[in-house]
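Budget justification aside, the reviewers requested a transparent look at the raw inputs and outputs of the sequence design task funded under Objective 1. We therefore reproduce one unedited record. The lines immediately below are the structure tokens for a 516-residue chain.
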């Protein structure tokens, strides 16, 4: 039994090559705080990636040392890869001290993604050394797909799989000794017992009425305020590369528009509403209920007539048509991010991913006429990807009025497109998309990173205004039929250099296609 006075919800620091501050909404952690707030007199949030300490360059983890030869120090410009590996948030020691200083008896750790599990585990082990009696509960997407990994650390008292609303209230009642709850009857949890991991059977998901709605301010400039939310759960599709249904299930559910309105008004009550406000929906599948989406957007417009909308996690173009797209534009959608996955029909079939090129082309033409920017994302590194499929994707985007967004395939334990063995803390950093690990042995790291740079060439070609140096860079790439990039020399002057590890054959074939 633990004291019910204080709890703390913790988002651990993140280690990666990059971090998108304005999209790091931590909505799951805020939902946990809202739930825990009903069981503790005080429940504090410590969101370390957003603690203002800024990125600190750290050494590459041992498991991704293979990337060292691909990183060009002092590289800059539009075709560059990442230069430094960083920690976003304070050091483990500082974070641990802040957690202990809260005086909490219960610490709820929210792990955003599996690839960031090691940092969370290091932090948990540190706080347990400082305060062994602290009850630590780990959850979030990173825990849900590999609960054994966290239970193998004897510093974790409980894991919560899937959605917090399902099991966290019952678990908190149990650890506080309320209502004589039997922990074996609590769904979606795990713990250690006699040196073995115990996970309660099955996987239960929320009903729509159980979902806790939350919206949060994520970013602010002098003139603009950004708000993010998620209004739906679950996915009806069975794309083999996606982990959504592992944590949210196959049934699509939506939250009440009134519940979201309440959250939105609470934010606006404390913010400068003279600023232009953009509301970003991070949902994977909001287009599954188009009527609901329109109801929500119209409600937002009544509250904030000048607000705009984005769907930065992607919107399903297959559920759009020109009439619906026009309506969304009229309501204030100011950018469209489309998730293509692949333009290759054979790969799409393998991944159980339907593609509709005719529909997409209709939308491109409409959005171009309306001067609405579009980014189309494709995945590179599927099991049957080849030079030709990469070129097919790049050619598809190059020939249309959209920018390219490339996502290098990354494995997630439990997805159908990846055979997962036992949890292994010695490989976790490889699971980040930025690590360009050749999971499917179809494309090498060199080829993946060459494709990454080629997608940037596509965007540079489409860039309306180019500097003299950018024009020179493009000319040299086309003339010599190989990749070049910009680097600052010792005198801090910009020079063009040739990355020697590139996949030259892929570059030549790409340039042949785009110059046809």
């Amino acid at each position: 039994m633990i004291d019910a006075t204080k709890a703390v919800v913790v988002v651990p620091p993140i280690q990666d090559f990059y971090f998108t501050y304005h999209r790091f909404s931590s909505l799951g952690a805020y939902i946990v705080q809202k739930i825990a707030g009903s069981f503790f007199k005080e429940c504090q949030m410590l969101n370390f990636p957003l603690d203002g300490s800024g990125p600190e360059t750290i050494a590459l983890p041992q498991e991704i040392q293979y990337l060292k030869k691909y990183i060009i120090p002092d590289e800059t410009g539009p075709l560059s890869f990442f230069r430094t590996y960083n920690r976003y948030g304070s050091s483990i020691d500082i974070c641990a001290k802040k957690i202990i200083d809260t005086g909490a008896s219960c610490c709820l750790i929210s792990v955003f993604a599996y690839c960031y599990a090691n940092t969370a585990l290091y932090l948990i082990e540190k706080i347990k050394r400082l305060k062994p009696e602290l009850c630590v509960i780990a959850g979030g997407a990173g825990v849900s797909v590999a609960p054994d990994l966290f239970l193998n650390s004897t510093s974790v008292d409980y894991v919560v799989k899937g959605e917090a609303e399902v099991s966290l209230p019952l678990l908190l009642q149990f650890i506080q000794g309320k209502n004589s709850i039997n922990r074996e009857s609590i769904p979606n949890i795990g713990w250690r017992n006699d040196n073995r991991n115990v996970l309660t059977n099955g996987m239960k998901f929320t009903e729509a009425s159980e979902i806790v709605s939350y919206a949060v301010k994520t970013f602010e400039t002098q003139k603009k305020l950004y708000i993010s939310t998620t209004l739906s759960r679950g996915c009806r599709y069975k794309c083999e590369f996606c982990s959504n249904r592992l944590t949210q299930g196959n049934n699509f559910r939506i939250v009440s528009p009134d519940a979201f309105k309440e959250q939105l008004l609470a934010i606006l009550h404390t913010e400068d509403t003279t600023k232009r406000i953009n509301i970003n929906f991070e949902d994977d599948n909001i287009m599954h209920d188009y009527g609901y989406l329109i109801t929500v957007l119209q409600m937002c417009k009544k509250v904030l007539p000048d607000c705009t909308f984005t769907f930065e996690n992607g919107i399903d173009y297959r559920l759009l048509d020109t009439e619906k797209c026009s309506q969304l534009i009229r309501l204030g959608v100011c950018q469209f991010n489309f998730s293509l996955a692949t333009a290759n029909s054979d790969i799409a079939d393998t991944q159980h991913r339907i593609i509709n090129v005719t529909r997409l082309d209709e939308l491109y033409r409409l959005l171009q006429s309306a001067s609405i920017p579009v980014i189309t994302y494709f995945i590179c590194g599927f099991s049957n990807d080849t030079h030709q499929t990469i070129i097919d994707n790049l050619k598809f985007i190059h020939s249309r009025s959209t920018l390219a967004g490339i996502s290098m395939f990354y494995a997630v334990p439990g997805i159908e497109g990846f055979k997962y063995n036992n949890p292994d803390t010695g490989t976790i950093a490889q699971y980040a998309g930025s690590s360009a690990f050749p999971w499917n042995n179809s494309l090498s790291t060199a080829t993946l990173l060459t494709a990454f740079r080629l997608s940037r060439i596509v965007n540079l070609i489409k860039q309306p205004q180019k500097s003299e140096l950018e024009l020179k860079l493009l000319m040299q790439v086309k003339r010599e039929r190989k990749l070049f990039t910009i680097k600052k020399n010792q005198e801090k002057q910009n020079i063009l250099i040739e990355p020697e590890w590139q996949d030259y054959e892929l570059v030549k074939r790409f340039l042949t296609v785009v110059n046809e």
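The mean pLDDT is 93. Residues 445-462 form the longest helix (18 residues). Computational costs for records of this kind are itemized in the attached budget.
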